[in-house]
Design a protein that fits this description.
The complex is a heterodimer of chains A (302) and B (415). Chain A has 302 residues and is an alpha/beta fold. Chain A is built from 9 helices and 10 strands. Helices cover 33% and strands 16% of the residues of chain A. The longest helix of chain A is centred in the first third of the chain and has 19 residues. Chain B has 3 domains: 206 residues, Rossmann fold (3-Layer(aba) Sandwich); 82 residues, Translation factors (Elongation Factor Tu (Ef-tu), domain 3); 104 residues, Translation factors (Elongation Factor Tu (Ef-tu), domain 3), CATH 2.40.30. In chain B, a hairpin with a 6-residue loop joins β22 and β23. Classes of the chains: A alpha/beta (302), B alpha+beta (415). The structure holds guanosine-5'-diphosphate (GDP) and magnesium ion. Magnesium ion binds next to α1 of chain B.
């Protein structure tokens, strides 16, 4: 008798591919949000698999805060070029210049929250009707309740109390003009699953995910990188440490962790032993209050 | 590592959230910052002990009302298995969420409070699990600490439930006495219940055999997407992408394509450049066929001697999710596998009372959270199997064409 057991990574992969094919079949203008982070790198790999040997049948979009790590931009552009997939860059700087949003002020200002407006404007401008996001339900409590096909009204808002029931693998793609669906194909993956898959499939990531020497300083219990976009406060001191990033985002609020891990395999061991969640360690903006994510999601955030 | 999906259900305050919090905590899935945040909130609210339920109760409205209002998905893993938990709410008005959680579950975990025993909600949730063909059911008798860990209480509840559940379609029924709050029999045994020699809950979840739950007999693949690369390297490539819904497919197999009725053989099975020797549920693959026949999304690939029923008349148990009732004569959009069509409700034979399992044949409508046996006429043929035999080819959703809301879910019956 043959072994008919399907491993968890194969089951997750199959589910994600199924979701991506549903979207490609049922929507007119899907787009895949690609930040260059590991979750979007995973989504991109799954999209490649879903449509092989054809090209990915939708463009990529990066909501660019302007506060980037150069390694991530390099990676983003190179991957898009390798796949021959068009890349739309929606710029938060442009939203600021056009007066659509106002830049926060003060030494701890970030542009993370401003992204929602830029994202919604871009969705409208390009007429996207399905937007793939790399959100995972294990990330936080608001996401844990979100559907795979998550309906957004014509203001781009999410109504957590009025979500469509989602059963089996039957996804309801129906929407009116102006409305859109956020699709989360890796909803059921955990951080551990993502790293295991990255290792198994040898998925390339931006170099900042792996240990390197960097000038950092401590703020609000996090290690922030010295970049052109942050200024040191009087009591803050620079130090050079061996660090890696667990997420990549706006450089002003994405923290590094001290780590010697230079391979996906070494990172898996660290994740297994880790005692702090991905967001808790590295996202300053989610720490403000318990309901931070829920509020931002309602406004149209990723 | 294998994956097990389970749904939890129970009445409000039976301790679902606490039990899940306990499973996550004891299997070391809770991180320091999450625990700190929960401890802080518990102190602020003046609780004497850390309220583990706060680990899972996510939306602000839930925290304010102290109840769980929507299905929340939770994840944990042990060296043996990865688990996906659908934590479903206990309130009557949110029964639809239990249906949602159960639709993909391998196992249902139903909690009862040892002081109250089996109540209306426990029966309702068991019926839903059974209707949704969840093969394994675990009844956790919780709060054993509040009945002095008394074996008689546990035995009485188990006996009563076993007798009642005889009417249900459940292959595997297990009873476990626990205290979620004190962590007894969740991941480890305790001298408080020396009389209990069964497995802990976690041990059961890790070992329950689910290998035979998938249908590996009736080969089915609904075509989801046709892959035509239009590139020089793959100029003539044409592949039929989909998720295998039943049975196994191998290169060389003779296959039948519906609705055309044409037969051909499988030339190859592709997954991203790799040629597979076999495909089975729930794999997502691409089939290449020996002959050039016209196939599009919504078609079904199966075997000449084993095909689903092609029909425009469907009998089904339907669960209703909308405030606006389902009425005879109502028209809805229907989605079944990868096929979309329109459905007319021809008849509502009865509404089922999930507590007594009795049938009310006089009801003209199905309202929010009700279930009933329905006849539908579909605008185009669907390729269906009985739900009990195949959860993918046997299920569908109904969508209100005006609001685009998902208003109903159906399990196809044999006729
Ligand atoms: N004594 C005792 N109390 C429990 C136990 N499990 C849960 N509780 C309490 O019962 C109440 C409701 O629990 P919760 O997990 O929110 O129930 P849910 O509504 O089913 O999610 C809370 O106050 C819990 O602390 C238990 O095993 N023993
Ligand atoms: Mg609860």
């Amino acid at each position: 008798m043959t072994d008919t057991t399907i491993s968890h990574l194969d089951a997750l992969e199959a589910e994600s591919i199924h979701i991506m094919r549903e979207v490609a079949a049922e929507f007119e203008r899907p787009v895949l949000l690609f930040s260059g982070g590991k979750d979007s790198a995973l989504m991109l790999k799954l999209a490649e698999k879903a449509f092989w040997p054809a090209r990915i049948p939708f463009p990529l979009m990066h909501v660019d805060t302007g506060h980037n790590f150069p390694e991530v931009l390099d990676y983003r552009d190179r991957r898009a070029a390798e796949l021959g997939t068009p890349l739309v860059v929606a710029s938060v700087q442009k939203s600021i210049d056009e007066g659509r949003v106002h830049e926060e002020t003060g030494p701890k200002a970030t542009r993370n929250r401003l992204q929602s407006v830029t994202l919604l404007d871009a969705i409208e401008e390009h007429g996207f009707d399905a937007v793939f996001g790399g959100g995972r339900r294990d990330e936080d409590k608001a996401r844990a309740k979100e559907r795979v096909f998550s309906f957004r009204d014509d203001f781009g808002q999410w109504d957590p109390k009025n979500q469509r029931p989602e059963l089996w693998s039957l996804y309801n793609a129906r929407h009116r003009k102006g409305e859109h669906i956020r699709v989360f194909p890796i909803s059921n993956w955990t951080e551990m699953d993502v790293w295991q898959y990255i290792e198994r499939e040898e998925i390339e990531l931006p170099s900042i995910y792996f240990a390197h020497r960097r000038q950092v300083f401590r703020r609000d219990g996090m290690l922030l990188a010295l970049t052109d976009f942050v200024k040191l406060l009087p009591d803050e001191e620079l130090e050079e440490l061996t660090v890696r990033f667990r997420t990549v985002g706006d450089a002003t609020c994405t923290g590094a962790v001290e780590s010697p891990a230079t391979t996906a395999e070494a990172i898996i061991l660290e994740v297994a032993a880790s005692r702090i969640t991905e967001r808790g360690a590295t996202r300053a903006d989610d720490k403000f209050n318990e309901a931070a994510m829920e509020d931002r999601k309602k406004e149209g955030y990723f | 590592m294998e994956m097990l999906r389970f749904a939890t259900a129970g009445s409000v305050d039976d301790g679902k959230s606490t039990l899940i919090g306990r499973l996550l905590l004891d299997s070391k899935q809770i991180f320091e910052d999450q625990l700190e945040s929960v401890e802080r909130t518990s102190r602020e609210k003046g609780f004497d002990y850390t309220n583990l339920a706060l680990l899972t109760d996510g939306l602000r409205a839930e925290r304010e009302q102290g109840i769980t209002i929507d299905v929340a998905y939770r994840y944990f893993a042990t060296p043996r298995r990865k688990f996906i938990i659908a934590d479903t709410p206990g309130h009557v008005q949110y029964t639809r969420n239990m249906v949602t959680g159960a639709s993909t579950a391998d196992l249902a975990l139903i909690l009862v409070d040892a002081r109250h025993g089996v109540v209306e909600q426990s029966r309702r949730h068991s019926v839903i699990a059974s209707l949704l063909s969840v093969r394994h059911l675990v009844l956790c008798v919780n709060k054993m600490d509040l009945v002095d860990y008394d074996q008689l209480v546990f035995d009485r509840i188990s006996e009563e439930f076993r007798e009642w559940a005889g009417k249900l379609d459940i292959t595997d029924l297990t009873f476990i006495p626990v205290s979620a709050l004190h962590g007894v029999n969740v991941t480890s045994h305790s001298p408080n219940m020396g009389w209990y020699d069964g497995p802990t809950l976690l041990h059961h979840l890790e070992h329950v055999y689910i290998g035979s739950d998938r249908n590996l007999i009736d080969a089915r693949m609904p075509v989801q997407f046709v892959i035509r690369p239009m590139s020089d390297a793959y100029h003539d490539y044409r592949g039929y992408a989909g998720t295998v819904a039943g049975g196994t497919f191998r290169p060389g197999d003779e296959v039948l394509v519906l609705p055309s009725g044409l037969t051909t053989t499988i030339a190859g099975i592709d997954l991203y450049g790799e040629e597979l020797s076999e495909a089975m549920p729930p794999q997502s693959v691409t089939l290449r066929l020996a002959d050039d026949i016209d196939i599009s999304r919504g078609d079904m690939i199966c075997r000449p001697n084993n095909a689903p029923r092609a029909t425009q008349e469907i009998e089904a148990m339907v669960c209703w999710f909308s405030e606006r009732p389902m009425t005879v004569g109502g028209k809805y959009a229907i989605k079944h596998t990868t096929r979309s069509a329109r459905a007319l409700v021809r008849d509502l034979h009865y509404r089922m009372d999930v507590n007594s399992l009795s049938r009310d044949e006089t009801s003209p409508t199905l309202t929010l959270n009700e279930m009933g046996r329905v006849s539908l006429r579909i605008t185009t043929p669907l390729f269906v199997d009985e739900y009990r035999r195949n959860r993918t080819t046997g299920s569908f959703i109904l969508i209100d064409e005006g609001t685009n809301e998902t208003v109903g879910a159906g399990m196809i019956l044999d006729t």
